[in-house]
Design a protein that fits this description.
By secondary structure, the protein is α/β, with parallel strands linked by helices. The strands form four sheets. Strands 3, 4, 5, 8, 9, 16 and 17 form a seven-stranded mixed beta sheet that branches. A six-stranded parallel beta sheet has the order 12-11-10-13-14-15, covered by helices on one side. Helix 9 links the parallel strand 14 and strand 15. The N terminus is likely disordered.
Length: about 375
């Protein structure tokens, strides 16, 4: 096993991890340096880490123009673990607590955006992986495909103890990514809500929208997904390639959340919205989607986007999931199967999220 430095100095320690050394290199074992906890830091033994499609995109350098990859790349931003040490000034967490870390581990916390509590839009945000490491421990931040991590307490979340920890891990990305726009849209009893796609994001959106009390309708190109959509909480399923079924629901939706990351026709979906209603995109297709101006103009409709959520909303989401017993549907794998899992994820062969059991790192 190789290491990012020969020995840790007094301010760092070594942690086990799996990393990619190039855009198409498989993930393999690596020891990485982590900083020793500073006064406001929380040290976390990682128990589970979800596998997000963003992990593949970043590591494969698919987002080179926006977020170029730096190698070795250690992905993972759906982290659940146990606190093993805290700095002297930490007040929100204690040794033994079950906690989570999502897509952010820092921001400048002084800009107007941060002061407004919207850290997820801070120009100086530090992503869990792939951002310049302000502490100089490594060239960039390393993510949750590792045995431990050290994070400022502001970005550490409390995980309700009644939730299955493996199923809770994807809440830190897929959960907040779908919770945030549903909350912002005011979804609740009496709302007719459409969820486009039934993948890692879509299945969480269905569960959350149902818990909000909405009438939930899944739009999918796959008739075979209908039974599963209903099991997850959908009241109804529309096969979006069925023109008659789509026409029957025209102008009837209060809000639609589009979770699809592949090219698809959003104009036919926009026709389902009521007057003045909104379609929010959380999926990120590689190519721009074709948008008809008339699909917006004729119903005074809008298309918007949404990026994860701030720390306050993420904690709110976790507490909401704790009250409603909501977790992701997951397939738990050992780290040694992560390359196979990535191949399956690229084929869409997962229901609905892979989660890595970090205890398997001890086998390396």
């Amino acid at each position: 096993m190789s290491t990012t430095r020969d020995t840790p100095d007094d301010s760092t320690y070594l942690a086990r991890a799996w990393a990619a050394r190039g855009a198409r290199a498989p993930l393999a074992p690596l020891q990485i340096a982590r900083r020793a906890p500073m006064p406001r830091d929380v040290q976390i033994e990682i128990l589970y880490c979800g596998v997000c499609h963003s992990d593949l995109h970043y590591t494969h350098d698919d987002w080179h123009d926006t977020l170029p990859a730096t190698y070795p790349a250690v992905p993972g931003h759906e982290v659940v673990g146990r606190v093993t040490a805290v700095g002297a000034e930490v007040t929100a967490h204690a040794v033994g607590d079950l906690v989570g870390v999502g897509c952010l581990v820092d921001s400048d916390r002084s800009c107007p955006i941060c002061r407004a509590g919207r850290e997820n839009f801070c120009p100086g945000q530090v992503l869990t992986y792939g951002s310049p490491d302000r502490h100089g421990t490594a060239p960039v931040t390393y993510g949750g495909y590792s045995s431990s991590v050290v994070v400022d307490e502001h970005f550490v979340l409390r995980v309700p103890r009644n939730l299955d920890l493996a199923g809770a891990a994807p809440l830190l990305c897929a959960g907040i990514t779908t919770y945030s726009p549903l909350k912002r849209a005011g979804v609740g009893p009496g709302s007719k809500v459409g969820i486009v796609g039934l993948g890692g994001l879509g299945h969480m959106a269905v569960k959350l929208a149902r818990a909000f009390g909405a009438n939930v309708v899944v739009l999918t190109t796959s008739p075979r997904k209908a039974d599963d959509a209903r099991r997850l909480g959908a009241h109804e399923v529309i096969v979006s390639t069925d023109a008659a079924a789509m026409a029957a629901h025209a102008g009837s939706f209060d809000f639609i959340l589009d979770t699809v990351s592949a090219e698809h026709d959003i104009n036919s979906i926009l026709a389902l919205l009521k007057l003045d209603a909104d379609l929010t995109l959380v999926g990120a297709p590689a190519r721009p989607l074709a948008l008809s101006s008339f699909a917006l103009i004729l119903g005074n409709r809008s298309v918007s986007g949404s990026a994860i959520g701030n720390i306050r909303d993420t904690q709110e989401m976790l507490d909401f999931c704790g009250r409603h017993g909501i977790t992701a549907d997951v397939e738990v794998i050992p780290m040694q199967q992560v390359n196979e899992a990535w191949q399956r994820l690229e084929r869409g062969d997962v229901k609905y999220r892979f989660v890595i059991d970090m205890a398997s790192l001890k086998a390396d």
